[in-house]
Structures are given as C-alpha cells and as structure tokens.
Design brief:
By secondary structure, this protein is mostly helical. Helix content is 76%, strand content 0%. The longest helix is centred in the C-terminal third of the chain and has 53 residues.
Amino acid sequence: MEYNVKIDKINSDQVSYDSSAECLEITLEEYRHVTERANKYDNKVYIMITFCGIFFAFILNLLDKLIELPFPENTKSGILFVLCIIFFVIISLCYISSMLILVIGLRPIKMQRLDPSILIQKSLYNKPATGANMLATKKYVEFILTNNATLEKAYKRISLVTILMSVVVFLSFAEYILLLFI
C-alpha cells in the first residue's frame, strides 16, 4: 500500500499569521507540567518519610536484640558480634542521613512565577497582543528551565535517600539473619 501526499509550496511573504498565542499556550502547558512535577516531589517525600517511620520500629527491634546479646565467648561469636555492631552503626548513619535529607526536602521548592506587572512596566497594555504573548512566552521558558534545574536537584536528593534506605534495608535484614546465628 502506498500513500501519495502532495504539498503545495506557500510563499511565506504572502502569509500573515500570528502564532504568538499558540506559542504561549504550548509554553503554559509545559509550565503546568513542571508545576505538577513539583507536586509529585512533595508526595514522594511524604511517602519516603512514612517508609522511614515504619522501618524505624524494625531498627529499634534490632537494637533491642543487640543489647540482649551475651558477651561473645569464642572467636566465631566474637566476629559475628563485631560484625553486627558495625552493621548497626552503618544502618544508623544511613538512616539518620536519610531522615536529615528528607527533612531538608520538606522545605518548599521555590518555583519561578510570572509577575504580571512586567506587562505594565513594558507598556504592553496598549499594544498588539503579539508583544505581550511573546514576552510572557520568553519569561515562562526561562522559568521552566530554572524550575526544571531546581527540581532535578530535589529529585537527586530523593534518589540519594532511596539508595541510603536500600542500604539500611539490606543491612538490617543481613544483621537480623546474623543475630539468628549468635
């Protein structure tokens, strides 16, 4: 099956079309997307804090088991005992780091917004809409780039917390298994 499409050439000198409204609409749609992404970041922080809170009980249970351990009497149990202590210190440091990063992540993200007074400052209220549309488009594009960079930094913190909590989970279960052998 073959499709044939005929495209007529248009002389651009004869076409007079203002696409500034479409440019502004496209830019505003992307700005809305960035704003939604910022809201999703907040939700991810709350989910991570909830997970950390639930896992805190498990870490306290490990601490109780460590405290109840008798002093090791032979080399094998001594090595396991020291390994459990090292694991618990690493777990604690990773957990505390995660919580600190999450608490810092609770601060509001400063998103750039358009100040409408710029339209008055530039005296665009009595000019064709094209000028105002293109100024707004230019400003929103700048804000989108700035806001995306800010969000990338914030999402990197979430990724770091995810890695730290993965270490906490892995070492916690490894320590729990080690405690079964002591």
